[in-house]
Amino acid sequence: MATRYAYSIDLDRCIGCQACTVACKTGNEVPLYDAYIDIGDIVTGKSPNFFGTFAHHRCFHCDDAACVTVCPTGTLSKWNGLTVVQAEKCSSCGYCTDACPFKIPHIVDNHVSKCIACFDLVQDGGTPWCAQTCPSQAIQFGEREKILANAQARVLQIKARYPNAQVYGDKQLGGLGLLMLLLDKPSVYGLPESPEITLPLAAWQKVVQPASVGLTIAALAATGLSFIIARRQHLREKASLNNVEPPAPVVETKPADESKEKNENG
């Protein structure tokens, strides 16, 4: 059975240093005007009891990934629990942007842009750039079962300080490939408590997509049948041409001598 990978981000350890964003942009050669990771400050409460934390806006690598469901070109796909990208296939249709409940994918330079899970690096046994670089070890990466167990153990350690602390992503959308150790309720971080696939997308999954697959198969079958018929007709025509007798040689006749014509008429 293939390994299912996951990230975790411990927001009790995150210091908001932006090292992960820089490492991600550098390692993945992300343009200066784009980013796979965005970190923002959150401050709540009233003086003198302010509460400060950081929010990480990045791909959650949903197991039941809406972006993968609606992608018509196979640009987005699942690999060992991660949602990976083949940008060269992208038609920049924007379906993934509309479908994602977290609004993560976006179109840049005519192709989808989002965390690519450092696919080449991970496939070769390496660790994603963000996890390699995090100085406070807030970002972890590895087998999902171990990552989840570690995150759940950390929640128990910090519950005394943060009563609302929880692991976000354990069950949501089939289990997320990015588990966040939140210090407060998801709404504080701008996250939906229970992210859901929208009704139109559910219809796409259950009706439109299967129907389109059926129509595609039918179209391919019809195309194949037409090809067979056309080829058979071509072979019959070729055979009939090969069996036709060559045309009879043309015998040239010379015009009658003019003087002879005159004598006969005279």
Describe the structure.
With 266 residues, the chain is of the alpha+beta class. The chain folds into two domains: 5-195, Alpha-Beta Plaits (2-Layer Sandwich); 198-240. The protein has helices spanning 19-27, 66-70, 95-99, 119-123, 129-133, 144-158, 199-243, 258-265, and strands at 5-10, 38-46, 49-57, 76-79, 82-85, 106-108, 111-113, 139-143, 166-168, 178-182. Strand 4 and strand 5 form a beta hairpin. Residues 215-229 have low confidence and may be disordered.
Number of structural units classed as domains:
2
Number of helices: 8
Instruction: Note the main sheet.
Output: 4 strands, mixed
The whole-number mean of residue pLDDT values reads: 84
Poorly predicted regions: 215-229
In the sheet with the most strands, the strands line up as: 8-1-10-9
The residue fraction in helices comes out at: 25-40%
CATH architecture of the largest domain: 2-Layer Sandwich
General shape: globular
CATH fold descriptor of the largest domain = Alpha-Beta Plaits
Number of strands: 10
State the assembly state of the protein chains: single chain
- At the first level of CATH, the class of the largest domain is Alpha Beta
The radius of gyration over CA amounts to 34 Å
Strand content: 15-25%
